[in-house]
């Protein structure tokens, strides 16, 4: 135990560099997946057949490819096609795209849960599609969507570790590098696990808060 | 003002409207009665384009009703609707519900709209509920807010789709009272209802619909007191004397 505390003090600053990158990857891909997911979901409920089918197939393609393969593709294959991305860019892009499929399904479920009478009431006062979405449907869908959205945030935080496979020196990769050069596997990976857990706990509490609020009505 | 001529409408194989021809004059109150599933609500929903129709023609003030044309917005801002289940926006306050259309669809000046909204809430007896949210109100109060929301659009006509059917019996009177006052003020109204007393006292004309056709129509009192067609007689007997 004494050895662990000693190691912890020694490795903590290096691991914190990894934490910073983990946060950057998580927030970056969270934002990207949210925007893309909203676009896919809107296409899906647009009522325009071509758009909704395009979105449905996109979602299925994205869902059918493992994140790690998507990352390899963006980082190793895209340069052959003339598009060179930094490891960080590829990680954010890959995780963002991968998670956009889940976000889209979540958003769509929220939108479709809104009572049809709400949409008819909006139409009956002359609102068009976009105004109905903006003023009536989306504000109500947010309440429904937030708890699962919080869960996606937690999953993305943990899955950001997959960026290590394309050389992004985030928390998991920093840990691995230290472990393989010091052989202090137990100390290092315990520390890494604790740091992920520490970052997850606020998110877990946030989800609980969302769930309570959604349950109120 | 509202004209329907030979309107047909099917849901799949089920033909719910089989040639409806009717008109509503400015300032007139027309009640539509008939058994459930007879197509009453569908008629209303076709008039403001919530449903499409397959054949025939509907026009409002000479403007053809086509739910896929941009002009439908124009029609909907002139013909308001009050729903059976109120359909108030639960995430907005009562006052916000009332001013939503004028502010965001008609883009009228805010101060003026808010003032009108409060006046309308006072008119339906709910001035003190302006800042409440709809789920906090009783059904009768919600329906009166819905009427205020319809009025806020300053419509030329209002369609009422069974406005009291979802209400507890003791709350029906308040809503009918508000509607009666509107009728007295000269509002053009088309009301799908099972409230025969309201139809008799307030309506100018009554249409009896059964099986997707207008079986009988005429001045309210005459039709309800001396129905001519056997189906109308049978329907009224069962509604008025259910035992």
UniProtKB/TrEMBL annotation, chain A:
Domain called ABC transmembrane type-1: residue spans: 19-207
Pfam families per the UniProt record, alphabetical: BPD_transp_1 (PF00528)
Keywords: Amino-acid transport, Cell membrane, Membrane, Transmembrane, Transmembrane helix, Transport
Membrane topology classification: Multi-pass membrane protein
Signal peptide region: none
Subcellular location: Cell inner membrane; Cell membrane
InterPro entries: AA_ABC_transptr_permease_3TM, ArtM/GltK/GlnP/TcyL/YhdX-like, MetI-like, MetI-like_sf
Stored NCBIfam families: HEQRo_perm_3TM
Protein name: Amino acid ABC transporter membrane protein (PAAT family)
Species of the source: Bradyrhizobium stylosanthis
């Amino acid at each position: 135990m004494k050895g662990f505390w000693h190691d912890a003090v020694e490795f903590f600053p290096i691991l914190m560099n990894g934490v910073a990158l983990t946060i950057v990857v998580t927030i970056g891909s969270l934002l990207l997946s949210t925007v893309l997911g909203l676009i896919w979901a809107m296409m899906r409920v647009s009522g325009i057949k071509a758009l909704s089918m395009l979105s449905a197939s996109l979602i299925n393609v994205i869902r059918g490819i493992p994140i790690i393969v998507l990352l390899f593709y963006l980082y190793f294959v895209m340069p052959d096609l003339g598009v060179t991305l930094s490891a960080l860019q590829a990680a954010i892009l890959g995780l963002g795209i991968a998670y956009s499929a889940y976000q889209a399904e979540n958003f769509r479920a929220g939108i479709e849960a809104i009572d049809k009478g709400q949409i008819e009431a909006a139409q009956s006062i002359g609102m068009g599609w976009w105004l109905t979405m903006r003023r009536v449907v989306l504000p109500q869908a947010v309440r429904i969507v937030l708890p699962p959205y919080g869960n996606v945030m937690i999953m993305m935080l943990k899955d950001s570790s997959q960026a290590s496979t394309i050389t992004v020196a985030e928390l998991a990769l920093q840990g691995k590098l230290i472990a393989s050069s010091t052989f202090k596997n137990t100390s290092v990976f315990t520390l890494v696990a604790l740091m992920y857990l520490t970052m997850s706990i606020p998110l877990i509490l946030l989800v609980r808060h969302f769930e309570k609020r959604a349950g109120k009505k | 003002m509202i004209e329907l001529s030979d309107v047909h409408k099917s849901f799949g194989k089920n033909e719910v409207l089989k040639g409806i021809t009717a008109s509503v004059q400015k300032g007139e109150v027309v009640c539509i009665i008939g058994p459930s599933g007879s197509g009453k609500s569908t008629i209303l929903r076709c008039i403001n384009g919530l449903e499409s129709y397959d054949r025939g023609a509907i026009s409002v003030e000479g403007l053809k009703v086509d739910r896929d044309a941009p002009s439908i917005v124009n029609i909907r801002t002139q013909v308001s609707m009050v729903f059976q289940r109120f359909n108030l926006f639960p995430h907005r306050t009562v006052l916000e519900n009332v001013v939503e259309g004028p502010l965001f669809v008609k883009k009228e000046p805010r101060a003026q709209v808010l003032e009108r909204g409060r006046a309308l809430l006072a008119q339906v007896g709910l001035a003190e509920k302006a800042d409440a949210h709809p789920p906090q109100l009783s059904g009768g109060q919600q329906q009166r807010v819905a009427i205020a929301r319809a009025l806020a659009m300053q419509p030329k006509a209002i369609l009422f789709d069974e406005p009291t059917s979802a209400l507890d019996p003791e709350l029906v009177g308040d809503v009918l009272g508000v509607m009666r006052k509107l009728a007295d003020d000269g509002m053009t109204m088309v009301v799908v209802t099972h409230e025969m007393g309201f139809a008799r006292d307030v309506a100018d004309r009554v249409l009896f619909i059964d099986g997707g056709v207008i079986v009988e129509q005429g001045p309210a009192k005459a039709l309800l007191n001396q129905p001519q067609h056997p189906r109308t007689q049978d329907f009224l007997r069962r509604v008025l004397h259910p035992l």
